């Protein structure tokens, strides 16, 4: 059976996810509310949708490139995650990095979502980790 993302509208005004083109890897998702985000502000935007993500997969919520470029608006915790066992409303945390307030209306495209496989593995405590060339080199360890 082909992979399916089951989507339930929680309100009469919620819009189903849609692909912008035949081979788009992600679906556009829409706001199910009106709102304004001031410069530097953030807001949880309701979508009016719940999803049943197939086991072994996750939905990732990503920024729309046009909003990021033109208004400086992005998904704050990108990519956001919708787990396979979550059945509540999908919300999108948007942040306005722009210099002007960002206003949106119900039905506006606010983000995109894609379905991606995940490998579920246990976390095991060990006393020693194997050595690598990088070792414990962290942020900025490779230079400017």
Folded structure, characterized:
The protein is mainly β and 144 residues long. The protein has a single domain, classed as Distorted Sandwich (Deoxyuridine 5'-Triphosphate Nucleotidohydrolase, Chain A), CATH 2.70.40.10. It is built from 1 helix and 12 strands. The strands form 4 sheets. The chain has a 5-stranded antiparallel sheet with strand order 2-3-12-7-9, with no helix packed on it. Strands 5-10-8 form a 3-stranded antiparallel sheet. Strand 2 and strand 3 form a beta hairpin. It is globular and about 55 Å long. The mean pLDDT is 95.
List strands and helices in order, with pairings.
Layout lengths: L5 E4 L8 E2 L7 E4 L4 E3 L4 E5 L2 E4 L4 E6 L2 H7 L1 E3 L4 E3 L8 E6 L5 E3 L4 E9 L27
Antiparallel strand pairs: 1-6, 2-3, 3-12, 4-11, 5-10, 7-9, 7-12, 8-10
| Low-pLDDT stretches | none
Strands in their spatial order, largest beta sheet: 2-3-12-7-9
Number of strands: 12
- The CATH level-2 architecture is identified as Distorted Sandwich
Which percent range fits the helix content?
under 10%
The CATH top-level class label: Mainly Beta
**What is the H/E string?**
EEEEEEEHEEEEE
Form type: globular
Main structural class: mainly beta
Distinct helical segment count = 1
What is the rounded distance between the termini?
49 Å
Kindly give the count of domains: 1
Q: What brief labels describe this structure?
A:
5-stranded antiparallel sheet; 1 helix; 3-stranded antiparallel sheet; 144 residues; 12 strands; mainly beta; Deoxyuridine 5'-Triphosphate Nucleotidohydrolase, Chain A
